[in-house]
Write a structure and sequence with these properties.
This protein is mainly alpha-helical. It has one domain (2-112). Helix content is 83%, strand content 0%. The protein has 7 helices and no strands. Helix 1 packs antiparallel against helix 5.
Length: 114
Amino acid sequence: MGAFRILLAIMITGILGYTGIVGVNHGWNLFPVFFGDMAAMTWPGQFNFDFTCFLTLSGLWLAWRHHFSPGGLALGVLGLVGGIMVLAPYLFFASFSAKGDMKELLLGKVRANS
């Protein structure tokens, strides 16, 4: 679990730094570029579509883990839009809440104990 938490901390630090540099150099208006690449049917667009599929699964998992409660649905939307900037901190803190139990981390407390 320690190595997993270190990986998450590296991801959190890396994505925040990278996003900050890109935002300062290219502006903060990601969505027109992101969806424009998909509309152009280019390789960057293919990557963005693939990434969107991963983000959708991430958001669905977050909502499912919280039993599709209102908070879980909100968290799912945040995961869909925020990507690893949401998922990595969530997993980092949830790993402590689960006391390192991977089954509980992935399934949530209720499902892990049933």
